[in-house]
Amino acid sequence: MKRQFDDILLGSIELFCLAAECGSFTLAAQEAGITPAAVSRSVSRLEERLGVRLFTRTTRNINLTEAGKNYFQQSNQALLQLREAERDVMGKQNDPSGTLRISLPTTYGHYRILPLLPQFRAQYPKVKVDIHLSNRNVDFVSEGYDIAIRVRSQPDSTLIARTLEDARLVVVASPAYLKNNHAPQTLEELSDHECIQFELPSSGRKISWLFYDERKEREIMTTGSYCCSDDVLGGLTLAVNGAGLFQTYAFVAERYLSDGSLTEVLTQYRGRSRPYTLLYPLNRHLPLRVRVFIDFLMEHRQKWK
Predict the structure, then answer these.
(1) pTM score, two decimals?
(2) Is residue 72 within 8 Å of 16, Cβ to Cβ?
(3) Which residues contact 13 (CB under 8 A, 6 or more apart)?
(4) Domains and CATH numbers, the chain
(5) What is the mean pLDDT of each run of 10 residues along the chain (305 residues)?
(6) How far apart are CA 28 and CA 180, in angstroms?
């Protein structure tokens, strides 16, 4: 049988019903964890598909049209039936079960998420965890993932994005490297050093280093004889073994700074960060195993701030 409803359409219907219930795109966006613009675009796609206006819009509020009222009544009832069917299939169980498929960036996976999974499974022993470590973006629908974590995620109206942390950046080098090369005192002195590069595998672009200079944001394209791609840990290993300076996340360098394997430099320019974001499909009725894992991560993120 040919599919008439895809996941994006079902998500648009859910957002439409949520907006109708809230009487506001802004309130609906807050409830769903996305932007008001994403709600508006989703409703507009639904109106285009149906060929009718579902809301009248002003700068202050939205109101259902007659067609919108009829569609809301029937759609909301259909969603209620879907929820009831889902509860029946799950047997109204209180214990989450099934396989949780998660996609993680390599570095964040190793240092933040993987160490937590034994604790998660101790709480929810019926949940199996299928882990995919990669820095590429995944397709939730075709690849069957429940959750992904990414840095610098792009806006997507089909996904809910929740910030896990703004990961602070530091510049580090080994004592052996600094013994033979004076520690830089200014950003301009970076040009005199071996700066280990990291290249984005998706574009081949080398990422710039981020700093605060007298409270102003600066980006500097550094140069050096070493370049890593796909896995940040390669640059860290090079730095530990004396190859040069490297900018990485503080949570990655922490253990090496503690045991003296690395030394932080340019501390007067630190403070910049990159956001790590939790992504999951726009669906207010997520499987219980996904909901409890999201709650689990939201609880632990307080420790990362």
Answers:
(1) 0.68
(2) yes
(3) 46, 75, 79
(4) 7-89 (1.10.10.10), 98-163+275-304 (3.40.190.10), 166-273 (3.40.190.10)
(5) 59 87 84 83 91 86 90 86 67 76 92 95 94 79 82 72 90 96 94 92 83 91 90 92 96 95 96 90 78 90 74
(6) 58
